[in-house]
Amino acid sequence: MILKGKTWKFGNDINTDEIIPAKYLVSVDPKVLGENCMDGITPGFSKKIAFGNIIVGGKNFGCGSSREHAPLAIKGCGISCVIADSFARIFYRNSINIGLPIFECPEAAKSIEEGDEVEVDASTGLIRNLTKNKKYQAKPMPAFMQELIGAGGLMKWVVKKNG
User: Fold this and answer.
1) Where in the sequence is the domain holding 135, given as residue range(s)?
2) How many domains does the chain have?
3) For strand 117-121 and strand 126-129, is the pairing parallel, antiparallel, or unpaired?
4) Exposure string (b/e) for 148-158, b if CB count within 10 Å is 16 or more?
5) What would the pLDDT profile of 54-71 be if each residue is shown by its tens digit?
6) Cα distance between residue 116 and residue 137, in whole Å
7) Which SS3 state, helix, strand or coil, does residue 119 take?
8) What's the whole-number average pLDDT of the chain?
9) What is the 3-state secondary structure (H, E, C) of 26-53?
10) Of 41-45, 47-51, 120-124, 138-142, where does mean pLDDT reach its minimum?
11) Nearest CA to 80 among 48, 122, 47, 52?
């Protein structure tokens, strides 16, 4: 699967309350959560993005509360994937569980600038910055995690497997 979009850049230690502030946790519907995605940092963020855009973050992206609402909000607003230097472990697992592709790549996270056009090969972890004509190699996701992402998340994968 190839993911391609314009990037939106955020710094280090972006926490789940910045991704989806607690006052918006009245729903588990990804579209509703997506309307307020990143409002803790950039109010109105979801109105600025185009479907398929990519978030680039620094170290420890998704730290804080273990709420799975944060990756749901990111996916619900139309972001195709997140590239970061590193992810908080619970955010990482929650992202896989809900079907949001995420890629750890410190070099890409540092080099990519907001507005760059980026392409990610989800199966190999190859990240191409089309704006700067540079390539980076993220840690590829294990085949099982790729299968979960492809199914749309853990619950959809279970339904598919159990018919």
Assistant:
1) 2-162
2) 1
3) antiparallel
4) bbbbebbeebe
5) 999 999 999 998 788 999
6) 17
7) strand
8) 92
9) CCCCHHHHHCCCCCCCCCCHHHHCCCCC
10) 138-142
11) 52
